[in-house]
């Protein structure tokens, strides 16, 4: 993962999610593809890939919300992550 990758607990105790930040997402990758890729590590609650309203392109970063800290740990156990041939 990129050096900017972080994990943190969010939300209320009854609705706890765990976020990771992913940088360098290729322009050609959709939020659906990002979610599908990271689903192999656990239950993805949400994938937020912000778009620039002026250009219409996404900003090449995203947040992925997992349902447990174990899911986040599964992501970090893999040395690198490749989407469309690019390391994220």
TrEMBL record:
GO MF terms held by the record: RNA binding
SMART domains (alphabetical): RRM
InterPro entries documented for this protein: Nucleotide-bd_a/b_plait_sf (IPR012677), RBD_domain_sf (IPR035979), RRM_dom (IPR000504), SLIRP_RRM (IPR034152)
Coiled-coil region list: none
SUPFAM superfamilies the record matches: RNA-binding domain, RBD
Lipid metabolism is among the record's keywords: no
Gene3D superfamilies (alphabetical): 3.30.70.330
Segments traversing the membrane: none
PROSITE patterns named in the record: RRM
Protein keywords: RNA-binding
Pfam families, alphabetized: RRM_1
All residue ranges annotated as the RRM domain in the record: 18-88
Protein name, UniProt field: SLIRP protein
Upper taxonomic lineage: Eukaryota, Metazoa, Chordata, Craniata, Vertebrata
Gene: Slirp
